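Page 37, continued from 36.
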């Protein structure tokens, strides 16, 4: 059984059909890339999967459950986590406290009111910051981080709830070449416990980390398959040449 199964997903905004009968399947432990020209529906598909947008038609099943009409918080509890293009890091707080808040979100309100979580979570905070090469910046305000480091912090925060599926929308946008390389290295280890769906315009980056790709064009699936299959697909080549 697939971890994520999207069937016939359609999303209409007034006269605009952003998604038109999209199918997508993601297996456990798979890194799956979504590519396509601007306006092809990639971000809309991600928002529908996460619950930020409700589909006009179609179904979304996750770990065997129909979550098509479920609110975002129910999807998060089921094991879905989404990082949008726009950062949700709190810039005035330290890097440490941003990570702590993400971990505290998994605790009961009673524990938070009684301040019982900060000390027990200290080791987890440090471990996550070390994994994402941010431990040396722990006491600095998040605003002092580079763009790439802020993205790493937000990915770490998105993983705080130990999701089964992480959705990343253009995580390397605005990064330097070195930051993109490091981002790929930081994402690889999560495959042991978390699948990934990633929207990305950097084709070299997405080719290097993904097992399978789905290509969208004008709200429809143009092609889906392994990286090698997509690279040799003539319809995909034509669409990128036409939009270049």
């Amino acid at each position: 059984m697939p971890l994520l199964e999207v069937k016939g997903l359609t999303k209409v905004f007034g006269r605009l059909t952003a998604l038109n009968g999209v199918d997508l399947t993601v297996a456990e432990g798979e890194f799956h890339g979504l590519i396509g020209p601007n306006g092809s529906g990639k971000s809309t598909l991600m928002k529908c999967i996460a619950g930020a947008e409700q589909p006009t038609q179609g179904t979304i099943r996750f770990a065997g459950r129909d979550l098509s009409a479920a609110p975002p918080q129910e999807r998060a509890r089921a094991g879905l986590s989404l990082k949008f293009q726009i950062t949700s890091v709190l810039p005035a707080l330290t890097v440490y406290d941003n990570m702590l808040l993400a971990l505290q979100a998994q605790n009961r309100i009673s524990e938070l009111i009684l301040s019982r979580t900060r000390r027990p979570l200290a080791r987890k905070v440090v471990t996550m910051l070390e994994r994402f090469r941010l431990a040396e910046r722990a006491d600095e305000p998040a605003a002092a981080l580079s763009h790439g480091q802020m993205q790493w912090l937000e990915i770490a925060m998105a993983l705080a709830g130990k999701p089964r599926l992480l959705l990343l929308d253009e995580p390397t946008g605005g990064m330097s070449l070195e930051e993109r390389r490091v981002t790929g290295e930081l994402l690889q280890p999560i495959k042991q416990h978390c699948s990934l769906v990633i929207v990305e315009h950097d084709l070299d980056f997405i080719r290097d980390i993904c097992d399978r790709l789905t290509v969208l064009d004008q709200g429809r699936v143009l092609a889906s398959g392994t990286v090698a299959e997509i690279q040799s697909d003539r319809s995909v080549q034509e669409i990128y040449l036409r939009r270049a």
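Residues 47 and 83 are 10 Å apart (CA to CA). Flag for discussion at group meeting. Confidence is low (pLDDT under 50) at residues 109-114.
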